[in-house]
Amino acid sequence: MLLPEGAVQFQISDPNKEIPVTTSNLNQIPFEDEVLVLGGGAAGCAAAIALARKGRRVALIEREPTPRHKVCGEFLSGEALEDLYLLGIDVTSLGAVPIDYVRLAAARRAAQAPLPFSAASLTRKALDTALIAQAIAVGVRVERGRSVPRSASGSGPS
Ligand SMILES: Cc1cc2nc3c(=O)[nH]c(=O)nc-3n(C[C@H](O)[C@H](O)[C@H](O)COP(=O)(O)OP(=O)(O)OC[C@H]3O[C@@H](n4cnc5c(N)ncnc54)[C@H](O)[C@@H]3O)c2cc1C
């Protein structure tokens, strides 16, 4: 399908129901929500939670039908822990493991030092599950298993 420049092709599970989304036909998006967040990872969930807390009606579209493990270091820095706390995520109750020191190893030599801040480790699957659950808890309408493919013009989200 040929789309105008800047158009995003909105696809729901049935590929025959792809909906080209342009600024001129945004009202035709089959959502009544004020804000549409694409992607239910850390950034998308944080944005959706913050907006919903401010009273905006938010829908979040996540491509994966269920949370899954990702290639990730799973290290939560002090800043990340603070941000998650402010989002309402208690990583300790999710089973996060505290990290107190950093260790560098090469061949047979190793050195370690205490971390100058609190840190923790949590699987991305557990973290993403909790973030989506918190988004739902604050009123975000979450749609899983849907995606927005790259537009024919190449300028839309992938
Ligand atoms: C190997 C590796 C190790 C890392 N280790 C760490 C670490 O230890 N600590 C740390 O803090 N950070 C780490 N990071 C960085 C961290 O993973 C990213 O900063 C973080 O995931 C970015 O969040 P995000 O929400 O932008 O993207 P993502 O977490 O990638 O989330 C994007 C979401 O959007 C969905 N999506 C994508 N396309 C579409 C679409 N078209 N329609 C609908 N949904 C869509 C995806 O399914 C996904 O759920 C690591 C990254 C890598 C690659």
Structure description:
This protein is elongated. Helix 1 links the parallel strand 3 and strand 4 (about 60). The chain has helices at about 40-55, 80-85, 125-135, and strands spanning about 10, 20, 35-40, 60, 75, 95-105, 110-120, 140-145. The chain is about 25% helix and about 30% strand. The strands form 3 sheets. Strands 3-4-8 form a 3-stranded parallel beta sheet, covered by helices on one side. The protein has a 3-stranded antiparallel beta sheet with strand order 5-7-6. It has a two-stranded antiparallel sheet with strand order 1-2. Helix 1 (about 40-55) runs parallel beside helix 3. The protein folds into 2 domains: about 1-70 and about 125-158, FAD/NAD(P)-binding domain, CATH 3.50.50; about 75-120, no CATH class.
